[in-house]
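DM from R.C. (forwarded with permission)

"hey, sorry to bug you on a friday — could you get me a structure for this? deadline for the figure draft is monday and I only need the backbone to look sensible"
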Amino acid sequence: MITGRFCIAEGAALRCTLCPRRCRLLPGKTGLCRVRRGPAEAAPVSEASRALPPEPELPYYGFITALANDPIEKKPLYHWRPGSFIVSAGFAGCNLHCPFCQNWHISQLGREIPGRRLSPEDLVAVVEAEASSALAYTYSEPLVHGEFIVNTMQIARNRGIANVLVTNGCANPGLAREILAFTDAANIDLKCFSEKTYAEILGGDLRTVLNFISTAVEMGIHTEITTLVVPGLNDRGEELDALADFIADLAGPIPWHLSAYHPDWKWDTPPTDPAALTGIARRAQDRRGELRYIYIGNTAAPPEFRDTVCPACGAVLVRRSGYRIDTRGLAESRCRVCKEPAPFQD
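My reply, with the result:
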């Protein structure tokens, strides 16, 4: 059982290696995510302890802020078990500070947040009690709880429960590969395609996120990507073209979710115009034919960016209206009309 990882010793402090921020954890102090802390007192050093990795304190280990049985489309995952439900566990804290965060009340700590503690075994037991076959790590950023996530994922996989990761992808390669090894499906935020925006506004690193996405695809993880389109921040044509090119060049096709922004937390520009979002989706498809599956979320969308059609004959496989899902176009994972395999994973 992993209790403390992803740190190296630096004198009386620890250097967290979990994400590219590489926070220096002074004794009793947290890093930017506020869920990883330097030990209050230096542990006695022995020959045996010298061989062990230094361990941060994890005050939010197993702290669950939300538990729900969600439609899989809410993650959003449109090409993985469409129409199914998944137990979703939320966490606290985040290693980014996006000023438009739609879950800021749990991602940005600094006040008491309601929740309860569950061991990895207890969380998996919740999934089993719901008779569910999948568990999502979601709502706030799960990767900053790397130790808890790895421990839970191992138990879930051993019990035949699928692991779904909903993440900002801002994790260094060591953590990325360790968690992705137990991941069955992932929705990864690609918030923009500007290194400057990631560094100066979001507090992250674009290259790290791109590497995380590429690694997930290379490892055979079912991967979908979400971009929250924020007017005046990441909606420039050239930037969206570069973002679309990156996704189109991945081994795929990869479903891309364009999500409408609404004013929240510290950001107060007007909401994303639904017509502009449709224009962005059409522009991307016109430029890159590989982007066959672009979906619009958080607002009304035309059927072409809401439903999934058969790539062989064009028949509708899955119709969507909000979270109401009609899968009658499917027959045993094939198109009911032409019998070709549907572009979904189980």
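R.C.: lifesaver. The mean pLDDT is 93.
me: no worries. The first helix runs from residue 47 to 50.
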